[in-house]
Design goal:
Elements: E1 16-18, H1 27-33, E2 37-51, E3 58-74, H2 79-89, E4 102-111, E5 116-124, H3 126-135
Antiparallel strand pairs: 1-3, 2-3, 2-4, 4-5
């Protein structure tokens, strides 16, 4: 279900799929999203695995896995400001930039009702993703909020 983003799509007003410190109850949710959202709803990101990072997670494409998170719709008039703030937070400088920590990519997120919606998601940059697949610590179940819990 991976979508290819064309250069012209980089400014498309899509919702955001968040999976780590931007989720409700986490530190960056209050700092970056409070007052800027119209809607927040549980969702998942198919064909993606979640890996531990230095205080925040990294999502990496991987068929057959899924990451849990929220689908965030910007409040009217807040989209441009929110997009710019999240690009800075996620150290995303634009498509294919070698200094990117994350790449902003359009992907199909799955709502709880079984419908898909195209959304922006910040995935680990390609070199980082390669290292995480080889040596990273995966977060079981793809849920940042459930990390460290025993079943």
């Amino acid at each position: 279900m991976t979508s290819v983003v064309r250069t012209g799509d980089q400014a498309a007003a899509l919702p955001f799929f968040v999976y780590g410190t931007l989720r409700p109850g986490e530190v960056n949710h209050g700092l970056f999203l409070r007052g800027r959202t119209l809607r927040e709803e549980p969702a998942s990101l198919p064909d993606t695995a979640l890996f531990e990072g230095p205080g925040y997670p990294f999502a990496v494409e991987r068929p057959g896995s899924a990451v849990l998170g929220e689908l965030i719709t910007a409040a009217p008039g807040a989209y441009g400001e929110l997009l710019a703030a999240l690009d800075v937070l996620e150290e995303y400088g634009g498509p294919g930039r070698p200094g990117n920590v994350y790449d902003r990519t359009a992907r199909e997120a799955l709502r709880r009702d079984g419908t898909f919606v195209r959304a922006w998601v910040y995935l680990a940059s390609p070199l980082l993703a390669r290292d995480l697949r080889a040596r990273g610590t995966e977060i079981p179940g793809g849920d940042w909020l459930g990390r460290g819990r025993t079943p």
